[in-house]
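Shipment paperwork, digital attachment
Item: protein structure file
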Amino acid sequence: MPEISYVVKYNLNQTVEEAYKVLRANIQFCESSKKIRTLALTSYGPGEGKSTTSINLAISMAKAGMKVLYIDADIRKPMPFKYFMSSNLKGLTNYIQGQVKLEEVINETDIEGFSFITCGIKVNNPNELIATDKFKNFIQEEVAKLYDIVIIDTPPLGSVIDAAVIAAMVDGTIIVIEANSVKCQNAIRMKDQLVKANAKILGTVLNKIKKSDYKSYYGSYDYYNSNKKYVKKWSQVIKALKRGKYD
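Attachment content:
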C-alpha cells in the first residue's frame, strides 16, 4: 500500500454533516440478516451530486469509527479529484486487468479509517471489464473482507448500463436524485432497471435541496401538508419508487 497519506478536503456545515449522519444511520437500519459491506451509488444523469454524496458518506462512516474504502468505478468519465489530489496513477482498471497488485491501488488518507481507489487508466471496453469474474471477485471477496464497508461510485444509469451490472454484485444500492431536476418517469425507469438486475435498492437520496426548503422540510411534522411544491412533488416520487410505478 502506498506510504503517502493524501489530505482530504472535507469541510461541511453542521446541517449537511447532520444529513450524512442520518443517511449513515438509515443504511445501518436497512441491515437485516446480512450486513451491508458493499454499497453502490448511482444517479440518472451527471451532475446530480452522486460522487460528492459517495465521498461524504464514506468519510462520515470513517469518522464514526468504521474502516471504509471508496472506489471510483465511473470508468467512462472518472471524477476530478477535488477532494483528494492523487499522484498515484494506478487504479481500478489497472488492477482488474492484472497490471498491478491490490496494495498498489489502495490509497491512505489523513482521515483515519478512510481509503480510496481511483478508476485508473481509461479503457476501451469498460462494460466488459466490469462484467468480468475478476471484478466481481474484487468486490465480493477481496475488498469486502478488508473493510467494514466499501462504497462504489458508479456511472449514471440514465446513460450506460454499468451501474446496474455493479448493483447486481453488491449488498445494497442507493439512488441519488437532484431535486426538481430528474423527470419522475426517468426515476422510475432507472429503478425498474435496477430491479431487473436483481439489485437490492436501499433507498433514494434527494440531493441539492435549497437551504430554505431543507429547513421547512425538517422544521415541521406536517410533512404531507407542506405548502412547499418540491415536498409534494418528491414525496410522490419516493412513494412511487417504492410502489414501482408513478401515477
